[in-house]
Amino acid sequence: MAVTRGFTGKQREQTEADRLPPGQALTSDFPVLSAGPTPQVKLENWMFTLKHGPQIIARWTWSEFNQLPQSKMTRDIHCVTTWSKYNTAWQGVMVDDILAAAGIDEATAFTLAHGYDDYSTNVPTADLTGGKAMVATLYEGKPITPDHGGPARLVVPHLYFWKSAKWIHTLQFTDRDTAGFWEERGYHMYGDPWREQRYSGD
Amino acid sequence: MATRGASSVIPVTDSPKSPIPPAIRWQKVTINEIDKRTQSVTSFFFTPSQPFSFRAGQHVEVRLTAPNGYRAQRAYSIASAPESRDNIELAIEKLETGEVSPFFHEVAQVGDEIELRGPIGGHFVWQNADGGPILLAGAGSGVAPLMSMIRHHANSNSDVPMLLLLSARSWEDVIFRDELLAFDEKKGAFKLVLTITREAPKRDGDYGRRIDTPMMGEILKRLPSPPKRAFVCGSNPFVTVASEALIGAGVEPGSIRTERYGQ
Questions:
Q1: By CA distance, what is B117's nearest residue in A?
Q2: CB contact (8 A) between residue B253 and residue A39
């Protein structure tokens, strides 16, 4: 361990250690991070697509998508840039319900999520199913604002939040784990905040 | 105990379409110089202990460790040029509520060792071979990755048209001011436009207000043709306003790359 001369830091209370992953600090704001300008996606043009490789399995318009079963999920979220936010309240369609609506019993082991900003991120399919993730359309009861990923964003709260792709339009099942946008640029392939999997090799 | 020749850290490369990127390892670096830039921003220069190369615009993480094992890490953009890889400059703004930036501003001294890893990020980058014209827009310490690009441009004797629109509260708050003015005065391919939000501008062609669409429209006319790429870096509200001004002035959204600072 390389101790830094003179550094003590703002050490956390032990009671926080169960809830705040290592290296994170709590914020009450909701910071915005993205690689480019905020895309303005019109609802009449919005489509959500499920794919296996290049093949389209199912596709919904905005009104069709909103008729899928609605669920609510309130979770702590953790950004790789070291902020965490407790009790974020989302509403939308669980990935389980999307798969059921498309008649998919068993998807491939890996998924790439694609957004309208041409961003992509890879998540194992098992981390999207079993009640773990949703395509959210509401935040705290209101439509998600464009800067936070609206009209719809992926929410995978148990992984670092870059995995929760903003402006999502496609979930693409892949046969192998394929690096997404940030993962190709050195971010971790899995991204577990409790194991501090920020960058490749963590 | 590692076995020499063991392959556990070698990335899987059997498919060029889905590379597992190589690991980004921590290394010890030594502070070799501290240079106060403005009232709130000080540059720290680091000598790496292992070879370090990067592209202009990339960032690093630094990690501090307390005697009881508590650690804090933060990301900072590199301000130095990729040509000076043995001397990494980070321009660190002091945030009163922070825990890493106060350490640097109040405790760190020349000769101290910290841990650093990188480079990280391959999106917000520019190399001379990428061409232009290039429009850079920054505010406050958001100038850091843009400064790396500008220094790389100067070191390359580049003829790629490059314009920096830099927003600062006052003349005294312009980080790297003398160096930027010197680059501008060469009357070469690089142009500097300052916009000072809390006092009157000092130079002809500079502005005295926050960035808006009409300003961006005028600035773009100082480039010989529309920008091939625009890089915007600063606080979250600044990046939103500057990106919208670029789009409002007719810049293709897909050509804009952003880096947002802080929380």
A1: A199
A2: yes
Count of domains for chain A: 1
CB B114 within 8 A of CB B29: yes
Alpha-helix residue ranges (DSSP H) falling in chain A? 62-65, 95-102, 181-184
Mean pLDDT calculated for residue range A133-159: 96
Nearest-angstrom CA–CA distance, B20 and B9: 11
In Å, how far is A158's CA from the nearest CA of chain B? Answer: 20
Q: What are the angstrom distances between the C-alpha of B158 and each of B68, B124, B146, B151, B231?
A: 49, 19, 15, 10, 18
Contact A33 B260 (CB under 8 A): yes
- Does B211 score more than 50 pLDDT? yes
For B106, the 3-state DSSP assignment is helix
Instruction: Could you please state the CATH topology (level 3) that the domain comprising B26-120 is classified under.
Output: Elongation Factor Tu (Ef-tu); domain 3 (2.40.30)
How many whole angstroms separate alpha carbon B113 and alpha carbon B29? 6
Of the listed ranges A61-70, B217-226, B233-242, the least confidently predicted one is B233-242
Give how far the C-alpha of residue B114 lies from the chain's centroid of Cα atoms, to the nearest Å: 20
Least Cα distance to B244 among B218, B216, B208, B206 occurs for: B216
A152-161: per-residue pLDDT in tens? Answer: 999 999 999 9
CB atoms within 10 A of CB B232: 29
CB-based contact A4 B103, cutoff 8 Å: yes
d(CA B135, CA B227): 6
Residue B163 has pLDDT above 60, yes or no: yes
CB B150 within 8 A of CB B178: no
The amino acid at residue A175 is D
pLDDT per position as a tens digit, B92-123: 999 888 889 999 999 999 999 999 999 988 88
- The Cα–Cα gap between B102 and B96 comes to 7
- As assigned by CATH, the class of the B128-261 domain is alpha beta
- pLDDT at A14 exceeding the cut of 80: no
Residue B252: which of B212, B220, B224 has the closest Cα?
B220
Q: What is the pTM of this model?
A: 0.83
Q: H helices then E strands: how many in chain A? A: 3, 11
**What are the start and end residues of each CATH 2.40.30.10 domain in chain B?**
26-120
Alpha-carbon distance B249 to nearest alpha carbon in chain A (angstroms): 14
Give CATH 3.40.50.80 domain extents, chain B. Answer: 128-261
Q: How far apart are CA B46 and CA B113, in angstroms?
A: 9
**Model ipTM value:** 0.72
Give me the CATH number covering residue A116.
3.90.420.10
The reported pLDDT for the residue numbered B12 is: 34
**In what helix (H) or strand (E) does residue B240 lie, and over which residues does it extend?**
helix B236-248
